[in-house]
Write a structure and sequence with these properties.
Layout lengths: L5 H14 L3 E3 L22 E4 L2 E4 L4 E2 L4 E7 L3 E9 L21 E7 L6 E7 L5 E7 L4 E3 L7 E7 L2 E9 L12 E12 L3 E5 L16 E4 L10 E13 L11 E17 L2 E7 L28 H4 L22 E9 L2 E10 L2 E6 L4 E6 L3 E12 L3 E12 L2 E15 L2 E13 L2 H7 L12 H7 L5 E12 L3 E10 L15 E13 L8 E12 L5 E14 L3 E13 L16 E13 L5 E14 L4 E16 L3 E14 L2 E16 L4 E14 L11 E14 L5 E12 L7 E12 L2 E2 L1
Parallel strand pairs: 1-15
Antiparallel strand pairs: 2-5, 3-4, 3-14, 5-6, 6-12, 7-8, 7-13, 8-9, 9-10, 11-12, 13-14, 13-15, 16-17, 16-41, 16-42, 17-18, 18-19, 19-20, 20-23, 21-22, 23-24, 24-25, 25-26, 26-27, 27-28, 28-29, 29-30, 30-31, 31-32, 32-33, 33-34, 34-35, 35-36, 36-37, 37-38, 38-39, 39-40, 40-41
Length: 766
């Protein structure tokens, strides 16, 4: 229960006006604390004490129900922090042994650091009571958090009779900061997350909820007078071994497996050329996905799926490439032999660039009603460059350029963008893109399965590639948002012409212009309410193609409330008018070539975290939905249950299932079931063993389909992985994976791929 009086509230409000001007002095102490979670060394008695007592979420700056303090100092090489987190009921502390970055639902303490004090990016370091780490980079420009970023730092935790203690050492080498002489200013926020019936975000600062920029509000810290960046050279040799067995089971006779064994040595080099500039080099890297991607269902979807980047070389300072639009999506580069990258940030100037080749060429062909992927067995060259200038926390301007080319294919992109915050309530974003694309005959051959164009099954992707009279394309994006404590209003306009391409990014739709406007209202609860936060959201949008023909018009609205047991209830509806598939696929026009359908569907989302290590969620969706394959309206039902639970501190089970059914005139069109189960035993902070099983089962009523199609498709993928991580770059992986499928030509699920793999890498820090 919160202790709240009118005197305390008045004091907190008065502090808001001065919190941003207070400067925290971080003392220099030459001694290095031993990171053991005990806090029994005398050095902590001389550290700066910081009180963490303000609940900034979900409440509006109320007094914390628990006491927390941080002890902080630096020694020129590292930042040392000790957290003392008191708890009157230590048995309620939520803490589990998990892999790095997987502890968000646990008790946490941590720190956010804007090391350049530009209000543009913040490093985030969080630790649970057992010392398990989670880190990320928060990007103010995109409002995204890159949780795939990993720094090398130290932490230890210890649960006690009155709460828990955590000691942290963050080497300054993992931060970008000014190497100027004298005292340096950064910005920091010290945090504790307390998950009980509610999940409280407790901070050392006041948070103005009418200001959408949280990094801008972090208080300044001064110190680090003797801090100097050194060469920061990291050399990471690696060896990947894989034995892959494959076979083609698409035929009457099933052959034996063909076995291929590869031994792939690799090398990664990271070098801080100057205190503000980092150079990365990778040679023959192992770019395989160590952990299987989460299953996604695409049974009634005409656009390509998005998968996030997980590979270390591309993740290093990846936020430097960010703009309002996704123009640099590095998973397009599948298997490079080499990669070179340089990044720099100093005095508001940020630069990033990389060059990498690829053993293949994978290109997304976008349209306005769907997209396709062309994969060519030819090497490609890929490059991306980005420059941004930040004039304080109000104005940013940037330029992005990308290049992809292979044989006679090329795609060039140049873009300029800006973000302007004239007041703390208003945000304006603008971006313009110019592209030039040249396809070659290999693209048409791939889409037509090497058939002559006269007999090819022409679709939108083939037409987009053939239209070489329009090699140069342009795109525009503009948005405005006005944000207050209790409400926000926004609008945006996006226009991509038919020839615009961003092949190194993820742009799956072109030849459209879309206008969106919307409104959100927020309520803040208090200790006297059963709920703690609620909001109502609604927007309206309309989309036309380049010729002014209507593609879609939609209105959607939803209401969300958060309450006890960390529960969320959210429900809403969507009303959409949209075009169906083209009657004549050899023509791109919409009017007279498509039907307009009206979709109405309702949905509900429920979740709760009733106790430590338990998460339950449920998504329900029903209503009219376009049957894309048959160009008609059907009745769709979706059920998505989710359950995560821990058996003790070491064993975790994660279960996901998606059930989707589409009916037409009372008859089943298809029924799809996608199951994703993962079982992890975490031996300690450094090692775990994980079993992942992904099963897809689709049944179709062939009588309800216009074209010939299999009545069933089943796919089963499994992976068993053992991992040992001394740090994010010194790792050992050993595992096995396989996959197989079943269609109408197969009597059961038949394996077509088996892989035994191992990877070892060791980071030498100099």
């Amino acid at each position: 229960m919160f202790r709240s009086t009118s005197l305390i509230c008045a004091l907190l409000l008065s502090l808001k006006a001065t919190a941003s001007t207070q400067i925290i002095e971080i003392p220099f102490i030459a001694q290095e604390a031993s990171i053991d979670g005990q806090l029994n060394e005398s050095v902590w008695q001389s550290a700066k004490e910081i009180t963490i007592d303000n609940v900034s979420w979900p409440y509006d700056n109320t007094l914390s129900p628990v006491k927390t303090k941080a002890l902080v100092y630096e020694n020129g090489d590292a930042l040392f922090i000790a957290f003392i987190a008191l708890d009157t009921n230590p048995s309620d502390i939520r803490a589990h042994y998990r892999d790095r970055d997987k502890i968000w639902n646990d008790d946490l303490v941590g720190i956010k650091i804007d090391s350049l004090n530009t209000s543009q990016n913040a490093y985030q370091f969080f630790i649970n009571p057992l010392g398990v780490q989670m880190d990320s980079i928060e990007n103010e420009l995109t409002k995204n958090e890159n949780t795939s970023w990993n720094g090398i730092w130290s932490s230890k935790g210890n649960i006690t009779d009155d709460g828990y203690r955590v000691e942290v050492k963050i080497p300054l080498r993992v931060l970008n900061f000014s190497d100027s002489t004298g005292r340096k200013e950064m910005a920091m926020e010290f945090l504790r997350f307390l998950p009980r019936s509610e999940r409280l975000r407790i901070s050392n600062m006041q948070l103005d909820h009418s200001n959408s920029c949280w990094i801008c509000q972090m208080p300044a810290v001064s110190g680090f007078e003797s801090a100097k960046q050194n060469s920061n050279l990291t050399i990471t040799p690696a060896l990947a071994i894989a034995q892959t067995q494959t076979r083609d089971i698409d035929g009457a006779d099933i052959p034996d497996f063909d076995t291929d064994t590869n031994y792939e040595p690799g090398l990664d080099v990271k070098w801080a050329i100057t205190p503000d500039t980092t150079f990365n080099l990778t040679l023959n890297p192992d770019f395989s996905q160590v952990e299987a991607d989460t299953g996604q269902l695409s049974v009634n979807n005409s656009f390509s799926l998005f998968f996030p980047e997980k590979r270390a070389f591309f993740l290093e300072n990846s936020d430097y490439f960010s703009s309002h639009l996704n123009l640099v999506h590095t998973r397009n580069v599948a298997a490079p032999d080499y990669g070179v990258k340089a990044t720099s940030s100093q005095g508001g100037h940020t630069f990033a660039g990389f060059i990498a080749n690829d053993d293949a060429t994978h290109v997304l062909i976008p349209g306005n009603l769907g997209s396709s992927i062309v994969s060519l067995e030819q090497k490609s060259e890929n490059a991306a460059f980005r420059y941004r200038y930040d004039a304080g926390d109000k104005l940013s301007a940037g330029v992005t350029s990308t290049l992809r080319q292979s044989e006679d294919y090329q795609n060039k992109v140049v873009s300029i963008d800006t973000k302007y915050r004239p007041t703390k309530h208003d945000t304006i974003k603008l971006q313009a893109i110019a592209t030039n694309t040249e396809y070659d005959q290999h693209f048409v051959d791939e889409l037509c399965d090497d058939d002559p164009i006269e007999t090819c099954d022409i679709d939108e992707s083939v037409l987009r590639i053939q239209n070489q009279d329009e090699q140069t394309g342009v795109g525009y994006y503009a948005s405005y948002e006005h944000n207050r404590k209790h409400w926000r209003a926004f609008g945006s306009y996006r226009n991509y012409d038919a020839a615009m391409r961003a092949d190194l990014g993820f742009v799956s739709q072109v030849d459209f212009n879309k206008f969106v406007t919307g409104f959100e209202y927020r309520w803040y609860g208090d200790e006297n309410n059963w709920w703690n936060r609620a909001n109502w959201y609604s927007d309206w949008d309309i989309t036309h193609n380049e010729n002014g023909e209507l593609l879609e018009k939609e209105v959607q609205s939803n209401f969300r409330v958060e309450g006890p047991l960390q529960s969320t209830i959210q429900f809403g509806f969507d009303h959409r008018k949209r075009t169906g598939q083209r009657h004549d696929e050899s023509r791109l026009n919409i009017d007279g070539n498509t039907d307009m359908f009206t979709e109405n569907f309702q949905w509900m989302y429920l979740e709760m975290k009733p106790k430590a290590g338990v998460f339950a969620g449920l998504t329900l969706n029903t209503g009219n939905k376009l049957d894309i394959a048959n160009n008609r309206l059907g009745q769709r039902y979706i059920i998505k249950p989710t359950l995560d639970f821990n058996l003790g501190r070491h064993f975790e089970v994660k279960l996901r299932h998606t059930y989707e059914r589409l009916e037409h005139e009372g008859d089943n069109v298809y029924t799809a079931n996608l199951s994703d189960a993962r079982f992890t035993y975490q031996f300690g902070i450094n090692s775990y063993i994980r079993l992942a099983v992904i099963n897809l089962d689709i049944e179709r009523n062939q009588q309800k389909y216009i074209d010939e199609i299999d009545s069933q498709y089943k796919k089963l993928s499994t992976q068993l992985l053992y991992a040992y991580k001394l740090n994010p770059e010194t790792v050992l992986f050993v595992g096995y994976s396989d996959s197989g499928y079943q269609d109408d030509d197969l009597s059961d699920i038949t394996k077509d791929n088996k892989t035994f793999f191992a990877k070892f890498s060791y980071a030498w820090l100099h």
